[in-house]
From TrEMBL:
Originating organism: Thermaerobacter composti
EC number assigned by the record: 1.-.-.-
Entry keyword annotation includes Oxidoreductase: yes
Annotated keywords: Oxidoreductase
Protein name: NADPH:quinone oxidoreductase family protein
GO MF annotations, alphabetized: oxidoreductase activity
Enzyme class label: oxidoreductase
InterPro entries registered for this protein in UniProt: ADH-like_C, ADH-like_N, ER, GroES-like_sf, NAD(P)-bd_dom_sf, Zn-ADH-like_protein
Source organism, top-level taxon: Bacteria
Length: 326
């Protein structure tokens, strides 16, 4: 089989190589999947660079989420050949490969008619947004939800789920095309951060009160400025640091303004509460079947185009999710 491999750390275009490898063998408690779609995430870039908080041993295959068909299953597993699934491979044996073997507890069924690209593109982003908005922020109908990077994978999921929850969604994005995407996804107000000061716009939109919940996958200056437009007793959700800089939180400002800063590490939650993740998976599949959510996919790329796709993602030249199709 073919797989993308990293033998040394650096930018994806310098360290990723497409190689022939033996197909992985199924083991007890695992499921072997023929990969029909592999979604790309910013963490794949960070892993190649050695900048992610977890460093797999070299060499490794990146790829955090795949969808496809079960071709074999180990003893005492509940899956059978022919079932369609979405899965979260564990590094160093990631999903940018034609076949992958995954522990059963990281494999989830999907409907037979669900496109593999949609299934792969949905999982991490929608689970992250659902966990952040509902379990951590306890988002309520009528609250103002500010979503940064609204045209990105996780941001677009947060807009849709926030609107379904009855929140008044305000989104930020860079450029008119991405702003329009946010509106189509359900944002009541979309702000082009390249042109307008989102702090001022949010304050004007809320008569000076600010946003009740801020969904921030960017960090850096975006986090710092979000503190200026958070409502009293609001909640800032720390989802990631796509902007590069990890901000520092002044405890005195948190105290004086009575707001909360909540960490969103969905992977840690998934390890602690696997039952809750399966329940969330069923809820999200129902919303998808009802046509109320749909992942925003920038483009399907051929398996050989992984480096091109990752460079687009790194250069902020895309929106939504990018998916490889072996």
């Amino acid at each position: 089989m073919r797989a993308w491999r990293v033998h040394r750390l650096g930018p994806p275009q310098e360290v990723l190589s497409l190689e022939e490898m033996p197909e992985p063998e199924v083991r007890p408690g695992t499921v072997k999947i023929r990969v029909e779609a592999a979604a790309l995430n910013f963490l794949d870039i960070l892993l190649c660079r050695g900048e992610y908080q977890e460093r797999p041993p070299l060499p490794f295959t990146p790829g955090a989420e795949v969808a496809g068909t079960v071709v074999d299953a180990g003893p005492e597993t509940s899956f059978r050949p022919g079932q369609r699934v979405v899965a979260l491979p564990v590094l160093p044996d990631g999903g940018l490969a034609e076949f992958v073997v995954v522990l059963e507890d990281r494999v989830y069924p999907i409907p037979p008619a669900m496109p593999a690209a949609d299934a792969a593109a949905m999982f991490i982003t929608y689970h992250t947004a659902e966990y952040a908005l509902h379990r951590r922020a306890r988002l309520q109908p009528g609250e103002v939800l500010l979503v940064h990077a609204g045209a990105g994978g996780v941001g677009s999921a947060a807009i849709q789920l926030g609107a379904i929850a009855g929140a008044r969604v305000v989104a930020t994005a860079g450029g008119p095309e991405k702003v329009e995407l946010c509106r189509r996804l359900g944002a009541a107000l979309a702000i082009d951060y390249r042109r307008d000061d989102f702090v001022q716009v949010v304050k004007e939109h809320t008569s000076g009160r600010g946003a009740d919940v801020v969904f921030d996958p960017v960090g850096g200056d975006v986090f710092d400025r979000s503190r200026r437009c958070i409502a009293p007793e609001g909640r800032i959700l720390v989802v990631g640091f796509a902007g590069g800089r990890i901000p520092e939180i002044p405890a005195n400002h948190v105290l004086v303004k009575n707001y909360s800063v909540l960490g969103i590490h969905w992977g840690y939650h998934a390890r602690l509460a696997p039952g809750a993740v399966r329940e969330a998976h069923e809820r999200l599949l129902r919303l998808y079947a009802e046509g109320r959510i749909k992942p925003l996919i920038f483009r399907h790329f051929a398996f050989e185009e992984a480096i091109t796709a990752l460079n687009l993602l790194a250069g902020r030249q895309s929106w939504g999710k990018l998916v490889l199709v072996p």
